[in-house]
Each structure stands twice: as structure tokens, then as C-alpha cells.
Amino acid sequence: MFVPLYCQRKVLNWEKITEFYSKQGVIPIENLHVTLAYSRRLSNLNSFVPKSNELTLTKDSKRKMLVLGSTLALGLNSKALHDEFDYFIKKGCSYDFPSYIPHVSIFETPTPEMFNLIPFTDAIVLGPQEISELKE
Predict the structure, then answer these.
(1) What does the pLDDT read at residue 1?
(2) Mapped to the 3 state alphabet, what secondary structure does 48-68 carry?
(3) 5 with 93: CB under 8 angstroms?
């Protein structure tokens, strides 16, 4: 089945991240996740094998808050996530943004005061890859 493709890993310890940002006065969006593939190019969905393992991103004091389009995001320094993204590109997926920046979206349409939020630096636990048809 050839379809536009989407792949994500959900944040399993989202409650900890939500509590961290709530203490700073911001309620994060629901369904925290990391996007690995967002491909409008038609791909054979059945040719992709999702990784079923959890992935733990260790504590990282170098994380930064980023503005990506109209979203405030927590930037992640992760070779593993870059490697997973590269897997989709090598298998023919497109990527319609200037470069891949692993991140967790925290808030849509942030106000200027939010740009000074302290980044979450504790471990982040990601669930298995979920691959599906891209729904825009």
C-alpha cells in the first residue's frame, strides 16, 4: 500500500514533562511525541519495520527550547533519533523542512514570555516506533 508516511515515538514519561512545564506556568500540548518521518511522498507502508524497543534519552543539560514554525519545542541531542530519521530518508521518504531537528513539541502558538522557559533536562523515555499513513 503506497501512502504518505508518518512515524513517531510517543513520550512515555509525559507526566513528568507536563509537571515540569506546569510549574513554569505552561500546560504542554497533549500526546507528547517525537516525529521521525513526515513524508508526503508515497511510500510502501508495508516495507517499513517499526522498531519495537523503548528508547531512553539520558539526562542532557545541553537541551534548548526552540521555536519551530509556530511551535515552541524542546530540542533533543540524539544520534539514535537522527539514525532513525536517516533510515526513512534512505528508504525513499521525503522531508519537507530545511533539516531534521529531533524535538518534542511543547506548546503551539507560544507567547514571547515562553521563550525563556527552562528546558527539561531529565531522561525522556520514548515508546516504540508507530508507523502509519500521514494524515494532514
Answers:
(1) 81
(2) CCCCCCCEEECCCCCCCEEEE
(3) yes
